[in-house]
Amino acid sequence: MLSMHPTFPIERSLPMSRLLLLIAMFAAFTMTAPLQAQDASSTPLQDALQSVQADVASPSRSTVPQVLAALLQADAPGTVDFLRAWGDRAVYVRDADGLFFYAQDAPDRMLTLIDIDSGASVATTSSRDLSQIRPNAGVRREINAALVSFELTHPDPARRIAALETIARSPDADQIIPLTAARDAETDTRIIGRMDRLLDLLNARFATDTATRIDAIEGLRGDINTEARRVLNQTLQTRAEFASEIPAGTNVARIRTPGEDISLVDAYATLSDAGLAPPRPGRNAIRDALRANVVDGEVGGVPVHLLTTDERRREAYRALQEAGIVAPLVTEADMRAAVAEYVFFDAYLEADPVVTDAARDSLDSTRTAISFWQFASLSLDALSLASIFFLAAIGLAITFGVMRVINMAHGEFIMMGAYTGYVVQTVIPNYTTSLVIALPLAFAVTFAAGVVMERLVIRHLYTRPLETLLATFGISIALQQLAKNIFGTQARPLTAPDWLAGAIQVNDVVSVASIRVAIFVMALGFLLMLLYILNRTRLGLEVRAVTQNPGMAASMGINPDRINMLTFGLGSGIAGVAGVAIGLVAQVTSEMGANYIVQSFMTVVVGGVGSVFGTLAGATLIGFLQKGIEWFNPANTLAAQTFMVLFIILFIQFRPKGIVALKGRAAGD
Amino acid sequence: MPFDIPRTTATPAASKRSFLHENPSVLWFMGLLGVFTLGVTILSEGFGIGLISTNLVKILGMTLCLCLIAIAMDVVWGYCGILSLGHFAFFGLGGYAIGMWLMYARTEINIRDSLGRGTIPPTELEVSEAVAAQIFGVVGSSDLPLIWTFAHSLTFQLAMIVLVPGLLALIFGWLAFRSRVTGVYLSILTQAMTLALSLYLFQNDTGLRGNNGLSGLQNIPGALHVPQSVISMWFFWASAFALGAGYLLFAWVVAGKFGSVIRAIRDNEARVRFLGYNVEGYKLFVFTITAVVSGIAGALYYPQAGIINPAEIAPIASIYLAVWVAIGGRGRLYGAVIGAAFVSLLSSWLTGGGAPNIDLGFYRIVWTDWWLVLLGLGFVAVTLFFPKGIGGLFDYLVRKKP
Amino acid sequence: MSTLLEVSGVSVTFDGFRAINNLSIAIGEPELRAVIGPNGAGKTTFMDIVTGKTKPDEGKVLWGERSVNLLNYSESQIAKMGIGRKFQKPTVFEDQSVRDNLAMALANKRGPFSVLIWRPTDRDSARIEELAAEVGLSERLDDSAGILSHGQKQWLEIGMLLAQDPRLLLVDEPAAGMTPAEREHTTDLLKRAAKTRAVMVIEHDMEFIRRLNCRVTVLHEGSVLAEGSLDHVTGNQQVIDVYLGR
Fold this sequence. Notes:
Largest sheet of chain A: 5 strands, antiparallel
Structural class of chain A: alpha+beta
CATH class of chain C: Alpha Beta
Number of strands of chain A: 12
Radius of gyration of chain C: 18 Å
CATH architecture of chain C: 3-Layer(aba) Sandwich
Structural class of chain C: alpha/beta
Oligomer: heterotrimer
Distance between the termini of chain A: 75 Å
Strand content of chain C: 25-35%
Order of helices and strands of chain C: EEEHEEHEHHHHEHEHEEHH
Helix content of chain C: 25-40%
């Protein structure tokens, strides 16, 4: 909208005063509207328009107020739509009877006429029988302003809020007056607040009076809203300029010293572009000039085959220059001399330094606020990542802790859980129900798979931990390929129910996806459940006993085979549930497990083997670390991961047993 | 029976005899390798009757390189007990080191060729800028990264094949071994190192063309007119020679007292310390020298493969390496060779469409789909039932004939 | 007889449990010494400290004429200085031949590079034969150590200890699981070894110690309870209370 108007800045005041009047009238009419509606005809809008037919059909700026007055008086439904269509050149007049219609394209260059009151298709006519009403730019501006007023004073608060949002999306100097008027008439305090803010935004940009503008800019201080920031940034826009001396009244943002803030070559290029200095032949230009002046295998007396260094090329070029064939070379000294004549600087587009100072000030405090909120947002992200790592790793930690067995197929159990969720969703279309069923089912499926694997493979390899690692790796590649054979290579969707699909928007900087909150809650739930099982149940007691001293536990009558089987099943089952959770935020593919397995190992190793709290600490550390590194280098998540792995390698140097280490002889060697 | 088991060496008189006498398996291996090389040469397109396609020669040459890294893996894991999941990273680094020269030198030749056709010969700066623009255009850059400063020098890049993997192994090994990280922890740590390296290489701005990797490595600068059928044989011979030399080196290393010590470290590290051996030093020595050999194997492999990218370095590749060695039989060098050759050739055959699919009536077994399942389960079976791998079969042969 | 090893004021705590409590003990060269004590008296932990496996919380372990503090050295360095250790459970390298086991223990250079180029000299071979004869394994030199009997493994380990040519031998329960004839052989071995060096034997078996016929140190709860001839300590009421009487 902004671009439509700059040609009419002077005429602004006159129609505006008229509009104000109209708004007042409109407000008066709204009160009596129900009364009038009773005796309305079936085509109130058409009737009202026919009363000012000529003014509608061929509108000019001076006649628009009459039309608006007529419409206000009729207060017919569809008035706003009509005004919008009128402005958008979507209203047609039938030449035969002068009635107004909307129209739709029909085949054979015909138009389908649509009644402006009922919205029903009335007839199909040749476009020759119709005239399109084409208000000019000035008229359209009038119409749009009227529209704003209409909407801002609409009896329905929802409509008023919608109008405010429209203004916020495409702010315009013209809106200040109707908005101020509407604000004064407004009674809803909630809407008043919004209007004040919007007025600040508009005033900060468009107010003609400096004091008002600065007030508004001050009002935006610390406001992290995107619109507020955009307004301030727009106020602080600069343009690179140069002059022999800085002209008076220039609002200078910064002065650029050639060689420091701007390269000498660039500064000189600016001058030569402006025709203030001879252009400098660059390497390419020199080459092209030489190429164009080869005579008998020589250029300026230098044989062509010798022109393989810049030195000789310049020599040949100088010869050409002396012959007056080419533009002279520009040496560095020449450039310095030329550049020294001028000052290079960035100037604010806004001429008033008071305004830019205030804006800069406000923006600074906004930036501080943003940093704070970004930090908060980052922490939430990190927490969510940590939850996922925790869920992915805790199963591994349990099996590793109790059995000293690295289960390389753990990632595939995660994948299995996710695919279980997917299969359940294909059977049960209701996402909530299917999720409720998928979680325990995924646990059951992977629990069973874990038990089977323990019985068939791992049991036979207890004394050979490295071979367990390899055997489970064999299972891992077999499972991965099986999943690929069954489900194909493309990603399968695992859709969250609607109530988990949205995001909790704290403000313009911080928003958390509901699903991540759910995963956090789930991780917390598992943490509590595991703590309960390990510390308050018989099974937990036995598991802890086996963890700390398998031989002694066995001699105390604990059956380690049974404990191992159950533990392995439990660890695998949790992986399955984690798979459902991860599947909701990531894609379900046959390789998804592999993506998490190394991180899970890191989590376990960093946290310390065989401890729930260790895994929690490891997951938290790794989650926060990864997000923290991303914060410093947001463009490159790969770099973040690289640095994280390097950090972990170093970390293990200093705490080989992890954050929470078992002590004493039980820790073994 | 000529095949002996490296573990039962040294009869009283044998200590006076030569190394090859003590280890007849080395002679046998060398003989077979020689016969194989000769056979392939005679059957090749480039130098023989053309029964073996150039493509197959390349596959065989690459397999020899894989055998070489497999024996390195066997020494570090089968003999010294360090299950390294990082040796394929060293392999890849060797490939990158030579790939840089191959790519730079070939591009430079092309650029000089095209620029030289202009009226004015190019300057060195113009050449290197054009080379950089051509190589790095794909990652949206036209500057030559710092690590490519000496890419034009074959000598320098050849040195890098050895130095980069060697130094990385030395530094990483020193850190890991001195903090006495062992067993499963050490494996995970090496895996982390591999992951970090591949993630690093995946980035576009690290100067190795991100996930595009280096390509066109089969074209050898200075021999661009030589047909691939001949070049493939050159590399085949080089690979065979490297495998032979590597085998000899490692057989010599593990046969003597050094082998005795590293096997002792594998079996009981603490006890070896109490005998007065600096266990960390030995591990570091083995880790580094095997890393260097892996780098050399990679430098021979990738010119035959033609392309290298970071996916090659991913942790999974190093795990496959362990799988080959386990299937072939740990703790014996020829076992590693058998494992690497058997599994990688079988994999090429089955996934390359060479093997016929099996129609069961109700289901059609497509090998490209089922090969990994077969490998995974086969691997579990080997670990459970044949811990000595395929190489273990030779023990039966030896025992039958006293 | 000069003092070879002097442990003074050493304490070590595992998770609040004081395994060694202000222990002071010394041994001369040559000397044969038996260390006895109930389970948990800290006998094995004492050996761990001397050989560098466990670092104590406080105290000093001084070695040799120049009184080097061993706590600053690693296991392998301590072993190279001349302290050999035999574990409770026989730990020989079962995958390798008796000859290789002995060759590894021979007092030669221990660095990776010198080991890499090491080939047995005539002197080395002769020494291996000699040691094998001494521990009675001449016939088994080229057998894998894994197929030896339990007693033979113990001797092989003692043989490996002797091959190291240490000045101090720490021997943890050498007679455990041996037949009477094997015990006698072991006693002879140790007594012969103690003629030229210091030998410290941890043992439970009183009969075995009596046959060693040497000075005895009794440990209890991580410190020395009594020291002297076997008759002297077995007469000590405290020793009878905590150890013999049970």
